[in-house]
Structures are given as C-alpha cells and as structure tokens.
C-alpha cells in the first residue's frame, strides 16, 4: 500500500486516542493465542454494571485474505472477510452478522500516494452508502465524508476536516454533525519514541452554544509503564496506569471522578490483556 495521506478517520485520531483510548469503567480480561498456521484466537470477558458478557474471536490468514469470526454470549456471529490487492492499491472488506441478515456491508478502499478513497454499501433492502476521501500528503491532508440513506433519500452525515502532521506534533480541525460541531485538536510528542505526549481538544456545538475543552497527557515512566491523565472544563478528571507485566501482556487500571460533584461515586476500570 502507498504512503499517502491516510484515511479520513485518521484526521484528529492521535489526539483522540491520547484523550480517550484505554480509559474505561469496566472489568475486562482478554487472552490471545496464535498458531504457526496463522490462526489467531482471542477470548474476551467483560463485567459492566454487574452484568457479564464475553466473546470469542478467531482470525484466519491465507495469502491475501483474512477472515475474522466473532461469537458473543448472545450467539451472534460476526464475520469479516478482508481481501487485499484484488485490484492494484485496493482493499475489499465484506462483513455480516448472524442472525441479523440485514447487517451485510461491503467496503472498498483505494490507496494512492496523494489520495485515499473509501466507499461502503449496505447489502440489504434499505441500503446506505458511505463515502469518504482524503487528499494530500502525510504532512498535510484535506478530507470529507458523507452518508446517504437510499430509502429516505436523505444524507445521514457530512463531515470535513484538515490535518497537519510533523514528526513531533499533529493538529486537526473537523467540522461534523452536518455542520453543527467543530472540533480542533493538537498533540505534541515529548520524546522520540512518541510514548510521552501532551494534547488538547476543544469542541464547539453551535446549536446549543456549548464548548468543551479537554487537556491531557501521557508519560512513559520506563519502557514498561505509562501513566495518562485528562481533565475537561466540566470537571471530569481521568487517569490510568498501564504496565507491561510480561512481554506483550498489559495490565491497565483507570479511573474517573467528577471534581465538581465529589459526592458522586467515581468510576474505576481494570483491563488485562494476555498475549503469547
């Protein structure tokens, strides 16, 4: 694949990941195993609000094809087939979920040195069409996406964004929610390995005249341990500790508290991911 500007979903992703990724209020346990034949098996158990759920996911690889199958506790079966290079610089992804026969989706991705393009179609009686494109380079990119409901004849979404990326920083502006929301974000890496960083994000919702400002950061205590924290202007303070207990196996402890309402119970999360 080409080293182009990336997908539209990559615009603002670095700051979003720093401020949201791995923060949770659940108890999650994941075990992954791999075979020499290229088969991966992942089992996940989640306890949330006193309720326990889980799923088992398998991945099979054969040449330019990857098949992912996931079965949850409600006997829903999700299957995704990914094919690369059927045509030059393309990737095709087909997915469906059983017993929901109307959940089928087909997505085609096209990569170019200066552009990417994706289109997705719903494979059912009420089809939808999602299209996104990004133009530029790895340093600066402009992008837009739109969703169309063929049954109602209405656009379900349209979004535009721009990103500017340097080796040690990244900035993005996104106009979304059909023009009702503007989000600007910035992340600055503090070391050459990109493990320590600081980020800020401001979101403006025009219909409600509401602003949300969030700042956060991550710090690599050592090569095995990372701590993160974030705070927004509504008083939500979050923090997490992530430690690689053994190679490729990570323990994450996270929490969040409302500093403007300390009588409200704080939220805590624990995640353990074991990999061979």
Automatic annotation (TrEMBL):
Residue stretches in coiled coil: none
CDD domains reported for this sequence: Porin3_VDAC
UniProt key word Transport: yes
InterPro entries named in the record: Porin_dom_sf, Porin_Euk, Porin_Euk/Tom40
Chief subcellular location: membrane
A Pfam family this chain is assigned to: Porin_3
Keywords: Ion transport, Membrane, Porin, Transmembrane, Transmembrane beta strand, Transport
Transmembrane segments: none
Subcellular location, record wording: Membrane
Molecular function in Gene Ontology: porin activity; voltage-gated monoatomic anion channel activity
Any one cellular-component term (Gene Ontology): pore complex
UniProt family annotation: Belongs to the eukaryotic mitochondrial porin (TC 1.B.8.1) family.
Name of the protein in question: Mitochondrial outer membrane protein porin 2-like
Protein's organism: Juglans regia (English walnut)
Organism lineage: Eukaryota, Viridiplantae, Streptophyta, Embryophyta, Tracheophyta
